[in-house]
Each structure stands twice: as structure tokens, then as C-alpha cells.
Design a protein that fits this description.
The chain has about 475 residues and is an alpha+beta fold. The protein is built from 6 helices and 31 strands. The two termini are about 25 Å apart. This is Aladin-like.
Length: about 475
């Protein structure tokens, strides 16, 4: 059984972790300048695509045939014109790679956060944290050794994902690629060799802002807001298949359903899709008020919750529980339904009054389907704070019920930046919170499952008994 005491109290002071040097400036310092134009063009292709290749050829006219320099200049003009046209429809494409990561990463303050990404292993008591210096640390209940993962292409880390059916495989979403680390849990080394790491990349598929493993662990999905195709990788063969659909301007968010039958894919525009994973067909939901900001599946894969940027509501889409795999997606709700209003409210916290609510930044549903944690976006103009995490009590049967039950607050002036439920906690739910001061805390939520409430005797704090104590105690 997992308990809170099995996990260390961690603190990564932001001032002690320096951001790594930008890739472009580092290259200028160390890259030999006697490389051939063809080698530079090849590197530009792998890192930034066709436009970068044409730009390199135009800037190196003295080293290429005249006809190639002229045609490259004309081609670059066409690419830039098409890019400006595309950018007018999808403004996020004008962002730099780092700005795009900061906009679409799960972390609420990716630029300044000491902890940029966090991920529990689904079945084993271990987790990984990605730090601002692009290093990754792996903590385990069964070992005092903390592996430190570093790689020369491990830049702009924004997402982590453990393979569900393996104790040692960790996927890392980076600025230009996906890394697959093989971290042997029996190894005594604290610095695994880069030879244990696979590099998965595809021209144009960057930066990576989201990863999702299929529950059976055979497939890995990766998303980039700059690529209209999401990639489905087979890590064992190091091959990938792009799944592309017209519209949306990219793919910004992925969530694989727990039953493995559906894959949710959001775009940077007001369009989202749910893929059926047997025939790889999809259904679309359009005309949202904005881009999808966050989403999560119910444990049975029958309910999808999602939020839209700058809207104080949580939407739901339901899918039939008894439908077969192929028809389950098409049989889903034809329109999203508002299930929770999280508009701004005033909350008394000690002697303070805080305005909480509004736009949702991220939300997570615990594996029992009993608790939903919601993290908000601060809005100085409206006076709302992001310091509080809202907790909701949820039930899936006979109908979906979502009811507020309390708040979680850290130290004064500190805001949450990442939240994640452990999937293997057996005594309720365990919420990991990464705070803006670099601290990582584990918050246990002890409760009786709703299905067991009616089995509790009435001569105690059971069904029909009113509890008059405080819900929260102040330390």
C-alpha cells in the first residue's frame, strides 16, 4: 500500500536552478564554421523544416550554384507568404518555439518554474520531475538512488510520460524531438548513459508539448501545436505514423482514455477531436468559445471533461459504456454540456478574502472517480488568484455528479503550477502539487468511496450522521 511517508519532501529553489542556454546561442559558440553548406542545410531540415533549409541556401549563395540560390530565394518568398497567411488564421504559429511551449505546456508558468514537468508511474511507486536546467530526476520508493537524466538534445522539456506496462521506460517531450529513456530500476548508477536513450523525431513535428501512452503501452502519441498531424510512435521499432486532419492549426493536447479505446486531441483553435483507436477514425466537436485548455477522462472512459481558455465552466462529453469499440466514439454526445460553473467567488482564508475561480488552467481526476482537482489561471484585472486548488466530489453512477468539497492552499503567496494524482494510491487519493517556490508536496485525500457509503453502520459517522467539525484544520 502506498502512503505519503514513502515519498520524500522535495524542494528545488528556483534561484538554484539555472535555465539552460538557448540552443541557438550555444550553437554559435561551439559550432565549427567550416561546415559545408549541405551539412548546414541538412541540420536545418531536421531542426526547423523546409523554410530553414531555403533560408540557409539563400544566406550561402556564394557556396551554391546560381540557379539554386535564385530558386531558393523564390521558394523562401513563397514559404514566408504561405506562413503569413497561415499565421493570420492561427496566430500561435508566429510564436518562437520557447514561447509556444510556454503557451501550451501543462505547467502554469513554464518559463520561470523550477519544476517544468512531473509524472507519476501508473503502477509503480515512482515519479519523474523535469527541472528548468533540462535535467530529469527519477525518485522511487524502493531505491535511495536518484537517477539524473541528461542528453544533448534534451532541451525545452515540457512533458513526461511513463510507459504503463514497463518499470523503466520514460518518454520525454522536448523542443525538437521525443526521447525514450530506459532507466534500469536495478542499476546502481545515478547517471544513466545516453546510449540507453532513443531519439524519435520527424521534420516539422516540433516543439513537443504533450505525450500520451496507450494503456497497453505499445503506442506513444505526441503532439505539437505547430504540426497538424499527431504522431503515433512504436517505441520498440522507433517508427511513427502521422495522423493528420485538416483544420485546427496543430495539436496541443492529448489524453488517452483509460480503456484504451479513445484518444482525445485538442487543437490551438476552437476544434477538438476524439479518435477511435481500432480503425483510427475520429469525431469532431467545433464552435467552442476558444481553444481547449485542459481535459481529463473518467476512470471508465465514459466521460470526458474539458475546459476552454478564458471561460469559467467545465464541459462534459459522454460516451455509452456498453457500446463496442468502433461505435463508442460516434455514439458520444453530439454537443458538449456545461456541467460545472466555476465563476469567481470570494473565499475567506483565515483573515484574508481571496477571489478564486474563473478560467481553468488544468484539472485532474483521481483514479477512483471520486475527486476532481481544479487549478485556475490568475487574472490580475479581475482580482482572481491562482493560489487555491478547488476540490470537487464526483460520482459517475447513476448519473454524473460534481459537487464542491473544499480547497487546497500552499504557503502564503505561493501558487500551484502542476497537479497530478497518483494512480496506485490505495487509501483514497494522493495529489502531488508542484508549487511556484520550487516545492513538491504530496496531499492525501482520505474518503470513503461513494459505493461503500451505504454499507457503513448508522451508529457512527455513517449515512444519516451530520459531521459538525471543520473540514480543514490550519497548522
Amino acid at each position: 500500500m502506498s502512503t505519503v511517508g514513502e515519498f520524500p519532501s522535495l524542494h528545488f529553489p528556483p534561484d538554484s536552478i539555472r535555465a539552460s542556454r538557448e540552443e541557438s546561442s550555444a550553437k554559435a559558440a561551439f559550432l565549427p564554421h567550416n561546415e559545408t553548406v549541405w551539412k548546414r542545410a541538412k541540420e536545418a531540415w531536421y531542426e526547423h523544416g523546409l523554410g530553414a533549409v531555403l533560408s540557409e541556401l539563400v544566406n550561402s549563395r556564394a557556396e551554391v550554384p546560381g540557379w539554386l540560390g535564385w530558386s531558393s530565394s523564390a521558394g523562401l518568398a513563397v514559404v514566408r507568404w504561405l506562413g503569413s497567411l497561415h499565421g493570420s488564421l492561427f496566430p500561435h504559429l508566429a510564436l518562437s518555439n520557447e514561447d509556444m511551449i510556454a503557451t501550451f505546456a501543462e505547467n502554469a508558468d513554464w518559463y520561470h518554474s523550477a519544476i517544468r514537468a512531473f509524472c507519476w508511474h501508473p503502477h509503480i511507486h515512482k515519479f519523474a520531475v523535469a527541472l528548468r536546467d533540462n535535467s530529469i530526476k527519477v525518485y522511487s520508493r524502493t531505491s535511495k538512488i536518484v537517477p539524473l537524466l541528461k542528453h544533448k538534445v534534451q532541451k525545452g522539456v515540457s512533458a513526461l510520460a511513463w510507459e504503463p506496462q514497463c518499470a523503466s521506460v520514460l518518454a520525454v517531450g522536448c523542443q525538437n524531438c521525443v526521447l525514450i529513456w530506459h532507466v534500469d530500476p536495478m542499476s546502481l548508477s545515478s547517471r544513466p548513459s545516453t546510449t540507453t536513450c532513443q531519439v524519435l523525431s520527424r521534420p516539422g513535428h516540433s516543439p513537443i508539448t504533450c505525450l500520451a501512452w496507450s494503456p497497453h503501452g505499445k503506442l506513444l502519441a505526441s503532439a505539437s501545436p505547430a504540426d497538424t498531424a499527431m504522431m503515433i510512435w512504436s517505441a520498440s521499432t522507433e517508427t511513427g505514423v502521422p495522423l493528420r486532419r485538416v483544420g485546427g492549426g496543430g495539436v496541443s493536447l492529448l489524453r488517452w482514455s483509460p480503456d484504451g479505446n479513445k484518444l482525445f486531441a485538442a487543437t490551438p483553435s476552437s476544434l477538438l477531436r476524439v479518435w477511435e483507436t481500432e480503425t483510427w477514425t475520429c469525431e469532431r466537436w467545433t464552435n467552442l468559445a476558444g481553444r481547449c485548455q485542459s481535459s481529463c477522462w473518467s476512470p471508465d472512459g465514459a466521460v470526458l471533461l474539458f475546459t476552454v481558455a478564458d471561460e469559467p465552466v467545465i464541459y462534459s462529453i459522454t460516451f455509452p459504456r456498453d457500446a463496442d469499440v468502433v461505435t463508442s466514439v460516434k455514439a458520444g454526445s453530439k454537443s458538449a454540456v456545461v456541467c460545472v460553473d466555476v465563476s469567481q467567488v470570494a473565499v475567506e482564508v483565515g483573515e484574508e478574502v481571496l477571489n478564486v475561480g474563473g478560467s481553468v488552467h488544468s484539472m485532474v481526476w483521481d483514479p477512483t472517480g471520486e475527486r476532481l482537482a481544479v487549478m485556475f489561471t490568475a487574472d490580475p484585472e479581475k482580482g482572481t488568484t491562482s493560489q487555491l486548488i478547488a476540490l470537487f466530489r464526483t460520482r459517475l453512477h447513476p448519473v454524473l455528479e460534481i459537487m464542491p468539497c473544499g480547497f487546497i492552499r500552499g504557503e502564503p503567496g505561493v501558487s500551484p503550477e502542476l497537479i497530478s494524482f497518483q494512480e496506485s494510491f490505495e487509501s483514497g487519493a494522493l495529489l502531488a502539487v508542484c508549487w511556484s517556490n520550487g516545492k513538491l508536496s504530496f496531499i492525501p485525500l482520505m474518503f470513503v468511496p461513494s459505493d461503500d457509503v451505504n454499507r457503513i453502520p448508522r451508529n457512527g459517522f455513517g449515512n444519516g450522521t451530520v459531521f459538525t467539525g471543520q473540514m480543514f484544520s490550519q497548522q
